[in-house]
């Protein structure tokens, strides 16, 4: 009788454990992407500041801004709109660049954030929040400077 | 004195001609899409990247792609974390991949005439700091002022030091992944 009870408790605990473990596993597996716009900003910079930081020491800047799991730093970048274009998927891309700098910050918007660009055009100074994907550098093979790349961006 | 003036004029002329020639023959693309597809019995994994920058030099036939690796976007957050982690692509230490190749059949591509031309390229692909020779084919499509490039090729992960001794990704990611490249140049 007592033995039966013990078995029952073990069985219940086992099933509960399996359910929790499976649940956590399933949650991890299906975990959605981080919502960049509602997450806290890690650094606020100007286009000139971040471009200079990258051109001075790319490796140090990558260590500072890029995360090893890809959830890299969330930046608020202030600069002058130099160009607005579209990427291959039709998403809006804003280039913030000071005319005196060799490179700028290229920020890709999403369908949800696109409307934050309404009424914004070249020459205006704006602040964009987004996640950094890569830094600025001179690419010898391309023969020009690469911009800092932000994604999941929005004007704030 | 006169000689040095002449020399400097000659040098200035040469530089301006060289500079002009380069900007005239180089096509640039920031409108790119690179996808990779991995298929295993466990699951299919796909990721896409629209942040790559590319050039084609019409006169030398040189093709370059610079790909920011953290720009690969996955459906699931966990896949993206695995992809970026140091036992897979280690994108913090190796943030860019690079393709540097030369068109091997430039005589069969007319950048000045509308049409679709099969192209072959030979060169090098660098991923995770490791460089391997590549020999791939694709299509160059010329229409008015735009040039499009399409290519599809396989990348064997172990060639680039991407291996999994153990752990979940080893059973869920194929040993060879299919890479699709599309770019629009102006």
Topology:
The complex is a heterodimer of chains A (156) and B (186).
Chain A: H1 2-30, E1 43-46, H2 47-56, H3 58-65, E2 74-86, E3 92-96, E4 105-109, E5 125-134, E6 137-139, E7 144-146, E8 148-155
Parallel strand pairs in A: 1-2, 4-8
Antiparallel strand pairs in A: 2-3, 2-5, 3-4, 5-8, 6-7
Helix pairs in contact in A: 2-3
Chain B: H1 2-25, E1 26-29, E2 31-39, E3 44-49, E4 53-57, E5 62-68, E6 73-74, H2 77-84, E7 96-103, E8 115-127, E9 130-143, E10 146-156, H3 169-172, E11 176-185
Antiparallel strand pairs in B: 1-4, 2-3, 2-11, 3-6, 4-5, 5-7, 7-8, 8-9, 9-10, 10-11
Summarize the structure.
The complex is a heterodimer of chains A (156) and B (186). Chain A is an alpha+beta fold and 156 residues long. Chain A contains three helices and eight strands.
Listing every helix as H and every strand as E from the N terminus to the C terminus, the arrangement of chain B reads: HEEEEEEHEEEEHE
Along the chain, the helix and strand elements of chain A come as HEHHEEEEEEE
Biggest pleated-sheet summary of chain B: 11 strands, antiparallel
β-sheet strand percentage of chain A: 25-35%
- CATH-defined topology of chain B: Lipocalin
Determine the CATH superfamily of chain B.
Lipid/polyisoprenoid-binding, YceI-like
- Summed up, the helix count of chain B is 3
Order of strands across the main sheet of chain B? 1-4-5-7-8-9-10-11-2-3-6
Average pLDDT confidence of chain B is 86
Number of domains of chain A: 2
Content-based structural category of chain B: alpha+beta
Percent helix among the residues of chain A? 25-40%
Q: Greatest interface and its residue counts?
A: A-B, 36 and 38 residues
**How many beta-strand elements of chain B?**
11
